[in-house]
Amino acid sequence: IWGEMSDSFVPIKNIERELICPICKELFTHPLILPCQHSVCHKCVRELLMLSHDDSFDAGSECSMPGSPRSRVPSPSMERLDRLVRSGGSRGSMSSPGWRRNSVTPRVTAIPCPGCQHDIELGERGISMLFRNFTLENIVERYRQAARAAVAIMCNVCKPPLPPQEATKSCMDCKASYCNECFKLNHPWGTPKAQHEYVGPTTNFRPKVLMCPEHEMEKVNMYCEVCRRPVCHLCKLGGSHANHKVTSMSSAYKILKEKLAKSIHYLISKEDQVRTQISDLDVLIKQTEENGQLSEREAIAHFDRLFETLQERKTEMLRSIDQSRNRRLDQLKGQVEEYQGMLENSGLVGYAQEVLKETDQSCFVQTAKQLHVRIQRATESLRTFHPASNPCFDEFVLDTSKEEMLLKEMCFGGVPDPPLIDLSRSRVYNEATICWRLSDDHIATDHQLLEYRRLAICRDGVDSGSWRTTERVYGASTVVCDLEPDSLYAFRVRSCRSSMYSPYSPEVTFHTPPAPAFGFLFNDKCGFSAERLVLSKRRDSVESQAGMAFLLASERVQTGSYIGLDYIIGDMGITQGRHFWAFRVEAHSYMVKVGVASDTKLLEWFHNPRDTSSPRYDQDSGHDSGSEDACYELSQPFTLLTLGMGKLFIPKASASSVSSSSALVSTAASERVLPMPQRVGVCLDYDAGRVYFYDADTMRCLYERQVECSGTMYPAFGLMGGGRVHLEDFITAKRLTF
């Protein structure tokens, strides 16, 4: 691989963006590696601590005081940086800003990582727990040298009056650069200096050996595969990595170097493909720009048409209001003139008074007839007064609430993207908890709809039932109830936004357990050893710590005596029916036994130390992983299966105990060692007297055997050495709620 890559290395001038700190946006200066594997400048980490906890510490006042220890610390040089970093906790200059030894303020060392945005807990020692990234420092230095190729590194030893010559070598032990002549004079053959390590001209003199930040005097010589970081032998023996799987530094170096070389070779071999994809992306960018502009023009046209329609309706309505107003005003004004004629000084009353003066009867009757009709009409209008027109314009009041709602519900985001069902978080028992991840669309969806159906396997294939839909879900998960046991179900989900539905998510299938879920927590009363087992506050997790018990029993181990399992059972028992429960065993666990126990024999077992003997560490038993599970005496209350160190061990007697229908077990029975499942399931059929062990993710039966069910049967666990067992949330949910 290296031979093929030798002519394909990327020029160092092209990697500048990989060498820029995500905080200060400049080339890295003394970079530190955070626990999340991102690198940040040392000074930037300090500034992050100051910004994150400025209100928790009096850093400003302390830094501003002339006598402050921090004010006297100059800018750290490369030679002193490691010493300053490791001593930061005591001097208060490099770890948590503003913290003082006698301060009553608690020391907080959590910062947000600028690379992945996760909160990073630095621990009690703060920055002093972080490694320096020497590899990145060297790359940055080489980049600086390439950037200033015209400026040569001069010899540090040449003495005047001769001008200093250009350096050709730099000694990592002397931390100085030399020309050829000065190097020969200062590193003569046959002296210890001749064994010094020298490199090309450089100004970056890093320590020769990477030291452990937790144990300052110890060299880093191992690699923790759990934490993915270098550790020393003290970290493995009694530190925070005691129960973790570690490997030698040379092995980790070889493996990681091969992986990195293969990855680089793969990227280089796919250069043409990358260029093609970049061209495709450029076309997509152009199309996106053109389609975006087209959508803008279409949106403007649509709204212009809406505005024109609204303007037309507005003009027509204003014209109707004006006509109605003029007509009503004319009617009211005519009524005013009519009523003014009734007044005493008006023409009608005066005219009637003059007519009354007429003495000729025939002439009076002729004139007064018409006048009497007018007077009667005026008198009647006084008795029943009604305005000639209504001043209200209620008929022109508009109710535009529906139109406004329609305008607000106008969908401009198009069809939403479908969500994706999250297999790692979804769990299916007799009830299913289905979780999904919503699309990254910035426009929120209104709700989601989950559909599911039962798949029946027949001779002709899979017979699918009809889809059933849940109620609207306003979130990213829901619970489906009343699922049939030992059945295959398919699930899919889609989103809705403004009455527009997304496509369905890809279908996922889950196999329900063979029995309803049995809920319980760990029992901290019966036989629980608080000295060697650590139980969580919720009693849903138990951990066995390999510590003093093993050290004190070291002599007995040497002579072949027994080291005991620490047992713990569930706080709920089974007296009838079929029940299923699931749990997770940590991969680093040394040995964990899982199964069931009978209460009729538990008390005698826990109170009689002789009954706890096991052939596993008996000199005459011949330890053979898991073999003792098949030859338990009838008096023993436990029926258990052994897991440990990432493996599951099938007992020797499994050939007679496993049903012939289990193809998986029958083929694997000869090997007797299977990979440990991510989640383990146990099913107890009390009435039939059988216990089954499953891979809880696929619901494949790994092992089954006969068990004597007498009295009450309890879920049982045994732990030896470092190990941890977590009960599934669905198993503990009802008990925790209760």
Automatic annotation (TrEMBL):
Gene3D superfamilies assigned to the protein according to its UniProt record, in alphabetical order: 1.20.5.170, 2.60.120.920, 4.10.830.40, Classic Zinc Finger, Immunoglobulins, Zinc/RING finger domain, C3HC4 (zinc finger)
Cellular location(s): Cytoplasm, Cytoskeleton
Annotated coiled-coil segments of the chain: none
Residue ranges with Low complexity bias: 64-78
Domain COS: 356-413
Gene name for this UniProt entry: TRIM36
Domain spans labelled B30.2/SPRY: 500-735
Record carries keyword Mitochondrion: no
Domain Fibronectin type-III: 415-515
GO molecular function terms noted in the UniProt entry: ubiquitin-protein transferase activity; zinc ion binding
Protein's name in the database: Tripartite motif containing 36
Disordered: region residues: 59-79
Primary localization class, coarse: cytoplasm
Residue ranges constituting the B box-type domain according to the UniProt record: 207-249
Cross-referenced SUPFAM superfamilies: B-box zinc-binding domain, Concanavalin A-like lectins/glucanases, Fibronectin type III, RING/U-box
